[in-house]
Amino acid sequence: MTHVSPSRMxxxxxxxxxxxxxxxxxxxxxVIVASALSWLLLTFGSAIGLASVSPYTANGDTATTLTLxxxxxxxxxQIYAVAMGAYIAARLRPRASLVDSDEVGxxxxxxxxxxxxxxxxxxxxxAGMVAYGTARTGAQLAGAAAGTAARQADPGYTVxxxxxxxxxxxxxxxxxxxxxATRTEVGRILANALTTGDMPQADxxxxxxxxxxxxxxxxxxxxxxxxxxxxxAKQTALDTADKARKATAVAGFWIVFIxxxxxxxxxxxxTVGGSHRDDGV
Length: 281
Fold this sequence. Notes:
By secondary structure, the chain is mostly helical. The protein contains nine helices and two strands; from the N terminus they run E-E-H-H-H-H-H-H-H-H-H.
C-alpha cells in the first residue's frame, strides 16, 4: 500500500498489518557497519599514534599527550561508528503503519538505540569469551601477579641494597661473593613478602644472616636494614597499585560517559536516517 505525504506530495511505501516495528535485518546491518567502522578507525588511529612517536624523543609529556589523544580518538570513533550504524538501520527500516511523524521519529530513534544496545551486548559476549579463555590460564596469571609487587619495586636493585657491604673498599674476605642462586632466593623471599604484606620471622632471620655475612655488619644492623628496605619497597608497590587503581577508575568513568553519549548519538542518527528515508534524500 502507498501513502501520500501531505508535506511532500510523494508516495512512500508503508508496511501495515503485523509487521514488526523494529526491522531486525536493518539493525544487524547497522551493527556490522558500526563494528567495522570502529575497528577501521581505531586501527587508523593506532597507526597515526605509532607513526608520530619515536623512542628517541619520548618522555613523560609525550606519553601524557599520547594518552589524551588516544582517549579523544576512541571517543570520536565510537560515537561516529555507532551513529553511522544507527543511521543505516533506520534508513533501511520501513514505516510500520500509518502514524504521525512524531511516532515515526520515535520508532526510528528506537531503531538507532537498538543498534547501540546490541553492539554493547555483542561486545560483552565477546569479552566473556575472552575472559573464559583467560580463566583457563589462571594459575599462570596468579603466579605472575604474585611477583608484580616485587617487580614494581625493582627486586634486583632491592636485593643489591640488602647485600651491599657497608664499606666496599674494606670488605672482609668472603664478602661480595654472593652466588646467583642466593640472590635469586632472596629475591623470591622479598617478592613473597611484598605480595602477602608481611615477611615471616623465619624468612627474616634467614635473610638477616645472609645480609650480615655479605655486608659485613652485625645481625641487629642487618635486621634494621631489612626492615627499612622492605618498608620502602612495600610503599613503592602500594603507590604503584594506587596509581593503577585511580587510572582504572578514570578509564571506567570515561568509557561509561562515552558509551552514554554514543547512545544519544545513535538515537539522533536514527531519527535523521528515518527522516532522510521518508524525504527520499
